Target: tRNA-dihydrouridine(20) synthase
Amino acid sequence: MSSIAESVTAAAPRVPIPANGVDYRGKIVLAPMVRSGELPSRLLALKYGADLVWGPETIDRAIIGCQRQVNPRNGCIEFSRMPSNGGRPDIVSKESVIYRLDPVREKGRLIYQMGTASPELAVQAAKIVAADVSGIDVNSGCPKPFSTSGGMGAALLRTPDKLVSILEALVREVGEPFQIGISVKIRILESPEATEALVSRLVRTGITGLTVHCRTTPMRPRERAIRHQLRMVADVCHKAGVACIMNGDVTSRDHGLALMEEFGVDGAMIATSAESNSSCFRSEADGGLAPWRDVVHEYLRFCIESENRLGNTKYLLNMLIPGKNEEFKQAKLSRTYTDSCRRLKFDDLVSQAILLDELLDLDHKWELGPPEGHPRSKAVQNVMANNESAKAAGGDGTRSKATSSVAHKGGPIRTSSFPAPVKAEPEQAAVDPSIPAPMAQKSEVAV
Ligand SMILES: Cc1cc2nc3c(=O)[nH]c(=O)nc-3n(C[C@H](O)[C@H](O)[C@H](O)COP(=O)(O)O)c2cc1C
Model:
């Protein structure tokens, strides 16, 4: 813990931190972010000095029914299920990894965030992951209709009885038996009085921490965070012995530490600044912001190690690589890990990327051709040959799905990201018109 945080919190009473839990005090943490908060991004944040990482919000019903498996290739724990396919039994699908974590590198540092509007479902969902994480956080701040229409996220700010009952149920039925902390992430309300009344109730539920996003529900992300309620929220938390983390326009570790001192809060949470350069968690004294190429190299390494879904990897690459850069344009064109690494000249990652492309059934998409000394497998060659014959016979040679002829080399493999409420699909705009038709026209196959 930093000396600043120690001096801020020394006199405060404390809700005891459970044996398998973690104290939020003195911590600069990675915010929960759907899409941007998958395992590789969390490992990246930890590498650059984040003290704790929040996983992306996962809806209670999405994790309920998942099987827990250890991936034999990398030791990651994967919670997977078969997709429902909208009830259509005719669609053949692969198992989806709903949540993936690294039990070694995230040990003692991962907080699982859930979206819920029901104490029963919240408890059921939390029990599935509780033994593998250090805390469970309830998202009570998401303003998007997909969340609020189901009574989740920011809707809970308007139904405090329900929010309190969810937190109490989690503390009693998950926090105590599993000995982990329960926490909540809220937004400020329009008036300090309304926020104070809400926070006063929440801190009496047995939670160990509360994060306050210093924007109201109607505020857009680009509007500057407002901090005039922050000291009051921290005071209410401290009187009850609950750690208070601030969130909203925190740009770096040093900035977070300065704000903690200024507003008397216990920790600071960073979202969008970490999305664009996760080395913001490194203090100036330790080197400050790293060049984007270093960050992207490490990010791709973590993606490959954790077998991240390519669509998700490319989403964050779009954030991490500066837009005007020529390598950015190049990387956007890549449709495989191998091509991404080759276009970015990360030669040391290529051999691992080849293996992952084969595993994820992407190797038939190598746009730069098979890497030197690595001819396409016979199955892939057959598919390509069939395409050529189809073209010669007047067809367009396009395969609707590229999985049929290529041997699958083991699983479980992520086939889709769920939930995926953030709509932006930057990689879709990245199809290179110069790619031959069979590749360019195909929709992204499941990876
Ligand atoms: C891409 C993205 C996804 C997000 N997903 C979540 C989420 O799953 N749960 C949540 O509580 N907040 C989510 N948020 C909100 C952030 O956690 C954070 O509260 C907000 O971005 C303000 O922090 P900042 O000013 O540092 O960006 C998301 C934000 C972004 C940009």
User: Anything to note?
Assistant: The CA atoms of residues 70 and 84 lie 23 Å apart. Confidence is low (pLDDT under 50) at residues 1-5, 390-447.
